[in-house]
Amino acid sequence: MLENELKHPKHLLIMRLSAIGDVAMTVPVVLALRQQYPKLKITIVSRPLFKSFFTSIPNIHFYAADVEDSQTGLQGLYKLYKDLSILGIDAFADLHNVLRSKVIATFFKLNKVPVVSLNKDRKERKKLTALEPKVLSPMKSMIDRHAEVCKKLHLPIALSEVELFDKQTMSIDIQRLTGEKNSKWIGIAPFATYETKMYPLNLMKEVIQLLLQEEVKVFLFGGGKKEVEQLKSMASVSNNCINIAGTLTFQQELDLISNLDLMLSMDSGNGHMAAIYGVPVITMWGNTHPFTGFVPFRQPIENSLLPDIEKYPFLPTSVYGNKIVPGYLDCMKTIHPEVVVKKIKHLLSHSKTEK
Length: 355
Known about the structure:
The protein is of the alpha/beta class. About 35% of the residues lie in helices and about 15% in strands. It contains twelve helices and eleven strands. Strands 8-7-6-9-10-11 form a six-stranded parallel beta sheet, with helices on both faces. Strand 7, helix 9 and strand 8 (about 240-245) form a beta-alpha-beta unit.
């Protein structure tokens, strides 16, 4: 048992403030720590919204960081550190490795608390996204990098042994929206932070229309006023296509996602959210690439749909999608709707009906 490892901490602080998909990728690691070190105290520091990721994990203390208001700037970050320091922390896992978390890490270091920060391997990322024809080679997954942080803090974990979340019970409010489950449920999350990671909406509409010819129900996920209006329009084509955006709480969305038979997502948060419930995930990639290390947990690389690499030989051009390269914005148009639907149908036919 990993619990017998010597010198491991008694109270671990884990910090990851954003974004939603990145926080979701910490969940398998937290589950592994809880399951493999049952006596370990764990405190998670993140934004208030993300508490829902951890409520089902027993004996987790969640600290909601107010990094947009009172806990911003050097003075605010020192206040955050003081609040955390009284908890008896004896190890700090910085899974964000940005300026804010580095400041907190420095305060802990000055007080002799062991600190290990996430290695983002920026040099390798830069090489992978350089604008020249390249030999694609996969980088280490982000979740494996999280596990490395734990190992350096004398908390080695076996990710292969992690028991993921079970399917969650859906409230009456959710059931009123979804109706009875008498067909396959497919979640579709067509949006991403950057346009370079988004499948063209006109093509996604074709995907939905093709899917609705089968015995399935489609649920559309997103957020933000503009996205909600677009999803409402997309959902209006059929009673078997339901817009979820703006209708449920974040916790309710997670509960619904856990009951899906499949999630179709961009390189974005919804894929990672589905993965922590063991839901099969198909991800669509534009200017980014699965080799950058952001494939959802336990999802095979074969579930990644990519643009035509021969037509776009410089891919990937970006790790996060925030870099626009002339001529590459439309690369996802080379992923035909029929290919997407074929992949979905194949996965559904080979997946278990019950998780």
